[in-house]
C-alpha cells in the first residue's frame, strides 16, 4: 500500500501544488489521480518515486517512510510510464525494453528473450522488435513504454497520462489490453489523467483533485457516480453519470421473459433477427449475456427495433429477453430498495 500522510508541496516561489493530501493506494490495485489542469496530480505522482520531495507530510510504502530509503533501490521497485513514452530514440524497440534488466544484472540474452515476450504481452509482434521508436505509431510507442516499465517487474507502476497522446480508437484498444494485463499482473498502479472517463473505466479507486491541490473525493468509480460529495465532483464526473453507473451493475440479477415468437433463430438457437409483421427481418442489434452490464442491456433495449434486448448463453443460444419497460421497472424497484 502507498500512503500519502498529510502531504503538502509548496514550490519555490510560493505556489501550493499539493495541499494536505491524505490518500491510500491499495496494493495490487489501480488508483487514478484525476482533476483539472494544474491541480497537483503529477506532483503527487512524482512524490512516490522521490523525483519530488514533500514540503511536509510523509509518503509511505507498506508503512515505511520513503524519505529515509535509498533512492536507487526505491526506484528499482517502481516502473514509470509517461505520456510521450520517453523511449530511447537510438535504440531498437527490443533494446528499449531490455536495457533496464541488463542494468539490473541479467545477461543480454536473457533480457532480450524476456523483452520479446513482454512485447508480445502488450500486443506487439516480433516484427516490431528491430524497429526504432520513430518507426512506430503513437499507440505502438505507448505499448513499448508500458513493456519497458514492466521489464524490471516492479511491484509499483507510476503512469502519467500514458494514453493521452493517441486517438480515441487506439486509446480504447490500449485500455482493454491494459485492463487484461493488469488482471494478470496485479501491480500497484498510480495513474494520472485529466480524463474522467478514463479514470472511471480503469480505476479501482479514483482520487479527484480540485484546484489548489486539494482532494475533492476518493472512492470507487461507482461511489463517485452514484454519490458525488459535492457540486464540483458531480459536475466533474459529468451529466450522464446515472447511465454510466449502470456499467458497474451486472445483468445477472435481471429477470428475463420467455423468447417471443417474433424472434427468429437459426438451427443452433442463435438469434438472427426480428420478424416484423411486414415480413421484413430486422437485426437484433446485438445480444447480452448474464456477465454483461446493465448499461449494455439498457442500450440494447433502447436501440432495438422492437424495444427488446435478447439474452444469450455462452454458446450464443438465445435464452430470454428483457423488454425496455420491464428494465425500467427493475431499475425503479432497485432504486426504491
Ligand atoms: N517545478 C515547479 N515549480 C513551480 N511550480 C510548479 C512546478 N511544477 C509544477 N508547478 C505548479 O504546481 C501546480 C501543480 O502542478 P502539477 O504538474 O502537479 O499539476 P497537474 O495536475 O499534474 O497538471 P496537468 O494536468 O496540467 O499536468 C501547478 O500550478 C504548477 O504550475
TrEMBL record:
Molecular function via GO: ATP binding
Matching SUPFAM superfamilies: P-loop containing nucleoside triphosphate hydrolases
Key words, A-Z: ATP-binding, Nucleotide-binding, Transport
InterPro entries: AAA+_ATPase, ABC_transporter-like_ATP-bd, ABC_transporter-like_CS, P-loop_NTPase
Pfam families for this protein: ABC_tran
Listed PROSITE patterns: ABC_TRANSPORTER_1 (PS00211), ABC_TRANSPORTER_2 (PS50893)
Alphabetized Gene3D superfamilies for the sequence: P-loop containing nucleotide triphosphate hydrolases
Domain ABC transporter: 2-237
SMART domains (UniProt xref): AAA
UniProt record similarity statement: Belongs to the ABC transporter superfamily.
PANTHER family reported in the protein's UniProt record: OSMOPROTECTANT IMPORT ATP-BINDING PROTEIN OSMV
The protein's name: ATP-binding cassette domain-containing protein
Species per Swiss-Prot/TrEMBL record: Paractinoplanes lichenicola
Organism ancestry: Bacteria, Bacillati, Actinomycetota, Actinomycetes, Micromonosporales
Amino acid at each position: 500500500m502507498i500512503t500519502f500522510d498529510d502531504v503538502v508541496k509548496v514550490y519555490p516561489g510560493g505556489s501550493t501544488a499539493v495541499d494536505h493530501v491524505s490518500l491510500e493506494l491499495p496494493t495490487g490495485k489501480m488508483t487514478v489521480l484525476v482533476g483539472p489542469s494544474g491541480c497537483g496530480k503529477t506532483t503527487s505522482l512524482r512524490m512516490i518515486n522521490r523525483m519530488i520531495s514533500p514540503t511536509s507530510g510523509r509518503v509511505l510504502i507498506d508503512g515505511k517512510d520513503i524519505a529515509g530509503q535509498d533512492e536507487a533501490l526505491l526506484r528499482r521497485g517502481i516502473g514509470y510510464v509517461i505520456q510521450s513514452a520517453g523511449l530511447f530514440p537510438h535504440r531498437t524497440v527490443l533494446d528499449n525494453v531490455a536495457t533496464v534488466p541488463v542494468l539490473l544484472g541479467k545477461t543480454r540474452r536473457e533480457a532480450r528473450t524476456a523483452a520479446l515476450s513482454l512485447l508480445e504481452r502488450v500486443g506487439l509482434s516480433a516484427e516490431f522488435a528491430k524497429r526504432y521508436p520513430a518507426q512506430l505509431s503513437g499507440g505502438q510507442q505507448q505499448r513499448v513504454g508500458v513493456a519497458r516499465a514492466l521489464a524490471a517487474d516492479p511491484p509499483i507502476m507510476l503512469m502519467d497520462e500514458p494514453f493521452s497522446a493517441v486517438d480515441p480508437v487506439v486509446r480504447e484498444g490500449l485500455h482493454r489490453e491494459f485492463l487484461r494485463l493488469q488482471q494478470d499482473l496485479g501491480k500497484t498502479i498510480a495513474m494520472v489523467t485529466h480524463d474522467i472517463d478514463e479514470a472511471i473505466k480503469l480505476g479501482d479507486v479514483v482520487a479527484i483533485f480540485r484546484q489548489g491541490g486539494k482532494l475533492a473525493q476518493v472512492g470507487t468509480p461507482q461511489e463517485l457516480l452514484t454519490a458525488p460529495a459535492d457540486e464540483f465532483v458531480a459536475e466533474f464526473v459529468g451529466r450522464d453519470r446515472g447511465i454510466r453507473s449502470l456499467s458497474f451493475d451486472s445483468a445477472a440479477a435481471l429477470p428475463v421473459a420467455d423468447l417471443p415468437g417474433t424472434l427468429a433463430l437459426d438451427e443452433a438457437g442463435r438469434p438472427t433477427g426480428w420478424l416484423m409483421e411486414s415480413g421484413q427481418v430486422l437485426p437484433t442489434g446485438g445480444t447480452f449475456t448474464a456477465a454483461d452490464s446493465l448499461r449494455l442491456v439498457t442500450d440494447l433495449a433502447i436501440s432495438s427495433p422492437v424495444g427488446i434486448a435478447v439474452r444469450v448463453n455462452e454458446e450464443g443460444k438465445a435464452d430470454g429477453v428483457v423488454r425496455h419497460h420491464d428494465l425500467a421497472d427493475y431499475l425503479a424497484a432497485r432504486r426504491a430498495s
